[in-house]
Amino acid sequence: MSKFFEIIAWLQIVASPLLIGLGIGAYLYYKNPTIGFLILAIALGLIGFIIGILWANKVWKTKGTLWFISHVNASPDLDNLKRDKVNEEL
Questions:
Q1: 60 CB contacts (<8 Å, ≥6 apart)?
Q2: Which has the higher per-residue pLDDT, 3 or 58?
Q3: What range defines the domain where residue 46 resides?
Q4: Packing angle, helices 2-31 and 65-73, rounded to 10
Q5: d(CA 41, CA 47)
Q6: Does the predicted TM-score (pTM) go above 0.70?
Q7: What is the distance between the alpha carbons of residues 59 and 27, in angstroms, rounded to a whole number?
Q8: Residue whose C-alpha is closest to residue 55's, from 10, 8, 25
Q9: How far is CA 86 from the centre of its chain?
Q10: Exposed, middle or buried: residue 87 (CB in 10 Å: 0-12, 13-18, 19+)?
Q11: pLDDT of 41-69, one tens digit each?
Q12: Closest Cα partner for 49 from 90, 17, 9?
């Protein structure tokens, strides 16, 4: 079961640069819809996909994808919330 979550976290890491590349490519293509910009948009999506795969594999080999995603999704502002409520009551 842990391997399943590792794969899901790997896909989340790959999705970030992929979506950025697709977003930039879509913006450029819709601004000027020609075949040249379509090719550029597809190329930017592929570059984002390749960067995502390389980044996810590097993270997987070093710290692990679950460790990385958990630190990215952590919200340190909420860590001290309970402690702040106790201090306010005093």
A1: 6, 10
A2: 58
A3: 2-89
A4: 60
A5: 10
A6: yes
A7: 29
A8: 10
A9: 35
A10: exposed
A11: 999 999 999 999 999 999 999 988 888 88
A12: 17
